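COMPLEX REQUEST
Ligand: zinc ion
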Amino acid sequence: MPKKIPTFRPAWMLKPEVKKKVDQARYDRRPDRREDNAFYTGSPWRKLKTSKLRQDPLCQRCSTPERPVAATIVHHIKERKDFPDLELDWDNLESVCASCHSTHHGYGNKGRAERAGASDGTS
Ligand SMILES: [Zn+2]
Ligand SMILES: [Zn+2]
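STATUS: Structure written out below.
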């Protein structure tokens, strides 16, 4: 009599890289996240972002005439989650480089301490 081998695999058996992908997929499926993607890939935002970077191509935080730093990100001064009405408001936009942007949002604040002393004290 052939015995059926159980195919069930507990979660801990997933390889770490597989698990990461699974988590990411789960995150992308969250309704708020989906809305976010729709906003950032939507053409009103992309047009606005392109014109902002065209008008202010340098980081508005750390670029100086002596050491220009190209901006790659358009940041919402008042965050979208708190001020959704201002998400397409020109005056709410700031051109920043990736480093200033991650510092602002607190992503990976490693090795950027030297910048703190150079800031002009405004937030
Ligand atoms: Zn910067
Ligand atoms: Zn931002």
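REMARKS: Residues 75-76, 101, 105 surround zinc ion (ligand 2) (CB under 6 Å). Strands lie at 73-76, 93-96.
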